[in-house]
Please model this.
Amino acid sequence: MFATGKHTARDVSNLPALVLLDLKLPRVDGLEVLRQIRLDPRTSRLPVVILTTSKEEQDVAQSYDLGANSYIRKPVDFTQFAQAVEHLGLYWLVLNEPAPPRTGTGTISPKGR
Model:
């Protein structure tokens, strides 16, 4: 998304319409990914839905504090998971009115959102 490392040639203007983010990632903590998304002016308004198995209240609170738009616990059953993702897509990609892209280079701190 940020066109770094081996992806430096990637067109950074081609962003996803929605980010589904798990907190339990193998290399970088999902909360750190969310923090970076909110700090970058190009992605600061991008809808981010936390989709994770974590039931920890601290994870829910931190996710919203860092600017998550929604926090959903993944169903364990695959059919229920697929239905949940289908409903998410319908809401975020069809029904929701997205925020316009941010103009300029100013950022808003994700703390206190």
Observations:
- The two ends are 22 Å apart (CA to CA).
- The longest strand covers residues 48-52.
- Residues 25 and 33 are 9 Å apart (CA to CA).
